[in-house]
Every structure is written in structure tokens, then in C-alpha cells.
Amino acid sequence: MTRLSSATLAGLPADIVRPGYDRTAVRPGVVHLGIGAFNRAHQAVIFDDALTAGDLRWGVIAASLRSPGVRDQMMPQDCLYTMLVRDGSAEQARIIGVVSEVLVAPEDPAALVPALAAPDTHIVTLTVTEKGYKLDPATGALIEGDPQLAADLASLAAPQTAPGFLVAALAARRAAGLPPFTAISCDNLPHNGTRLRNAVLALAARHDPALADWIAAEGAFPETMVDRIVPATTDADIAALADRLGVEDQAMVKTEPFLQWVIEDKFCGPRPDFGAGVQVTAAVAPWEEAKLRLLNGAHSGIAYLGGLAGIDHVHEVLALPEARHFVESLWDEAQTTLSPPPELDVAAYRRELMARFDNPTLQHRTRQIAMDGSQKLPQRLLATIAARLSAGQGIDALSLAVAAWVRWQAGVDDRGEAHVVDDPLAAAIAARLADAPSTEARVDAILAFDAVVPADLAGNAAFRAALIRWLAILEADGARAALAQL
Ligand code: CS2
């Protein structure tokens, strides 16, 4: 079938929104690392809005740090793709034209550095997932034993990691007399800007202490909170869109109407006049903490409990009254640990979150959210639990979510069906659990895993007791039974 492209754009049905600017006049002011579906439905749309508003400095050169998949979807389409916004029976389609090129870093690492070092590049955004920063989830220190990071520590001639690319490009900018770019981490990590800065400075210092000092003095790494639910695109989504467009779009993304990007007001160079969905503010941490502990914490609980129960999608899990009760209980617990920004009405935010989770047209898979749990649990659930325990408060719902994650590591659900534990630490966790003969021993093996469980929780008797209680129920009777006992 004919593909979406510049040549086929004009023939699309009239109700499809098209780029409202001259694509040939756009200059690339942004380089994005990690072009997945989330970026295409979030930051890329914000920069597309800037182009639409008439500021043509904000085109995007995107890079994948891993595989050629997105490049192969987008380049034959002149990098055009459709964003489908779905809510109930309403569906809006908009063609996004902000991306001009997709590079595949492992194929040609040297090509990405000049893009990052170009005078027009003012902003670098990153969605490289939690594990892409090469930082220990529990402590935040550089994982020096990581083979890719070890290579970047040895030489930056052909970088492999996100921090490696940034350091190589910042060195090139400094050598050329250019200012640094503003580097914006858009991953769901607490203090993501500080983490990225720490990773970059630590790596730079190993190669050239003067470079590290320059980056520390001149660079900017704002904190951000990003929010939009973007389920992975399926073949059925692509086929349905082809029926509507009359051409095939292999790079389409589907998402919800909601979009939020809170960015710390800390740029070292130009930035667009951000429009709808973006808040530039002095303090991001309270937003980030509320989002991670309420939205993402509930998401992970729903993913593991729903996944164990053999339920495919978030909205189907929430069709169970006991699952809704679990989410509300988890939020009741998490809420007392927050210092929400004055503008955030937590009760209204919770109601809105539940409605977003209930959106049946998103088809958000529990398996997708279950990925990389070892990287997600510390900020989504464990920090919340530590805060509750130190205030002498209960952790019933929060500890059920963590126990469900432990149970998920066994690789079989409650019906006896096998699943892949998709996680960079899956093998290490499986090895620990393999030698553990009882529920207690499995909990102790997890508590002793200091890459995930921080020291203050590892020795906490109340946490251990709660995990043992829930894991025993999950192992004997399954997730539905555990939910019914909450
Ligand atoms: C989800 C997030 O996959 C996951 O872990 O919890 O991607 C979530 O959909 C986004 O953070 C929403 O902003």
C-alpha cells in the first residue's frame, strides 16, 4: 500500500489536520535522543505546536540509541506520522511534521555528534527510559560495570550511551566556541534533570575535568515532569488508520487527549514560547513526585496484579470493583506522602486519573507497563513506602503492589501461563529467587537486592511482614484473591 509522505499529504481526507507551516523552511533547533512512541506523542507535538505558531527554529532531528525500527518506519514517510487522539468514540487525527531526520546511533555514532554540536541546536530532549541513564536505580551512582558505559568511560570516539553522546557533543561545542545546549530529560525519574547532569558531569570529569567544569558552569539540565499515556501501536491500529487515510502510516502513535509537561525554568539558551500543555516553573519536584507516586505507582500495581490475573488492558482491570478499591487505597496511602504544589487539587487529580485509566479506546496493555519494573519500583512505590513507614503509617495497598511485582518475576501468571519478565535485571532477580525455597526466603532475597531496594527499607520489619503476607496469598490463591482481601 502507498505510504504517507510529502507526496501523499495533499490527498488525505479533509478532516485530517496537516502541518500548518512550510516544512522546507524549518530549522532543526532540537535533537531528541530515544525516538519512541512516547516522544512522538509528547515533546514532538509541543515543538510541532511551536512551528505551527510560526517560530520555525524548532524542528527536530531524532535519534534512536538502539535499533533501526523507527528510522525504517519514518524515513520512507519523509518523517511524517499521524497522532491519533482517542477518547471514547471521538478520534482526532493530526499529521506531525516536526521531525526532519531519524538517525540510528549504533549504525553511525559519529553522525549524531555533529547534529548535537550544530550551532542551531539549542535543546536536546531525552526519552531513553529509566535504564538509559546508566545510573543505579537505588543509589543514583553511575553503573561503571555496564559494558556500554565502560566503553564510553574508556573513549568517546564512538559513544554508546546517552550521557556519552552528550559529553562528546558538549566537548565539540566547547572546542568550536559554541555555548552548551539545554539538555532536558523526559523520563519518569525523580529529579531527572539532576540525574542526567550527574551522569554527564561524572563522565565528562573522567575525560577532561575542565570540560566538566565548563558544563557545570554554562550548561542547563532542567527537571521535568512529563505526562501522557501512549500505548504501543498495534498492527490493527495501523490497518484501521490506513482505511481512514487511504495510505499506510507505519509510524503512527495513539494517545489520550491529556498532555502535561512541567519544565524547570532553567535554560542556558533559546527556547520556544511554549504553548498549551507546558508549564515552565521554578519547582518541578512536587509535580513530579505526585505524578510518579499517584499515576505511575497505580499503573505498576495495576500492571502486575492485572497481569497475574491474566487481564490484558488497564481499563479491563479497572472494571473489577476490587481493583478500583485497590487503586483508591494505594492513592489514599500515597497522598499523605506528597507535598503537592498549591495549584494541584489532589482529589480532582485522582478523579481525572481514574477517568484516564478507564479510557477504553486506548487499549493500554498491562504487559507494556510491567516492563523494567526494577527501574521503576524505587520511585513509584518504594520511596512512598519508606515515607509512610517513617511516619508510622500503614502500607497495605502499596506493599500488595510490590508483592505482585515479586510474584511477576516467577514468569507465570495465575492461570499457569508463562510470560517474559522484560527487565534489565530479570536474570539477576531470577537467580536470587531460584535458590529461595519459601515465601519468606523469596522476600528476603528481594529485600537483600540493593540495586533495587534502598538500605532503609531492606531492614524494615513491617515492610518484610507485609510482603510475606501478600506474597503468600498471591502464590497460593492469585491476584484476584489478594485484591479481594485488601
Ligand atoms: C507507564 C507510563 O509504562 C509505564 O510504566 O506507567 O509510561 C505512563 O503511561 C506515563 O508515565 C504516563 O505519563
Primary descriptors:
N-(1-d-carboxylethyl)-l-norvaline Dehydrogenase, domain 2, 6-PGluconate_DH-like_C_sf, 11 strands, oxidoreductase activity, acting on the CH-OH group of donors, NAD or NADP as acceptor, Rossmann fold, three-stranded mixed β-sheet, 486 residues, NAD(P)-bd_dom_sf, globular, Mannitol dehydrogenase domain-containing protein, five-stranded parallel β-sheet, binds D-mannonic acid, Mannitol_DH_C
Explain this structure to me?
Residues 29-273 form the Mannitol dehydrogenase N-terminal domain. It holds the Pfam family Mannitol_dh_C. GO terms for molecular function: oxidoreductase activity, acting on the CH-OH group of donors, NAD or NADP as acceptor. Keywords: Oxidoreductase. Residues 284-466 form the Mannitol dehydrogenase C-terminal domain. The mean pLDDT is 97. The strands form three sheets. The chain has a five-stranded parallel beta sheet with strand order 5-2-1-6-7, with helices on both faces. The longest helix has 24 residues, at 285-308. It contains 22 helices and eleven strands. 48% of the residues are buried. Strand 3 and strand 4 form a beta hairpin. It has helices at 6-9, 37-41, 43-52, 69-74, 109-117, 147-154, 162-175, 192-207, 209-218, 235-245, 285-308, 314-317, 321-335, 346-358, 366-370, 373-390, 396-408, 426-434, 439-447, 455-458, 461-477, 479-485, and strands at 28-33, 59-64, 81-87, 90-96, 99-104, 123-126, 182-185, 224-227, 253-255, 260-264, 278-281. The radius of gyration is 23 Å and the shape is globular. It is an alpha/beta fold. It folds into two domains: 9-281, Rossmann fold, CATH 3.40.50; 285-485, N-(1-d-carboxylethyl)-l-norvaline Dehydrogenase, domain 2, CATH 1.10.1040. Helix 5 (109-117) crosses helix 7, helix 8 (192-207) runs antiparallel to helix 9 and helix 21 (461-477) crosses helix 22. The N and C termini lie far apart (52 Å). The structure holds D-mannonic acid. D-mannonic acid binds at residues 188, 227-229, 295-296, 299, 368-369, 376.
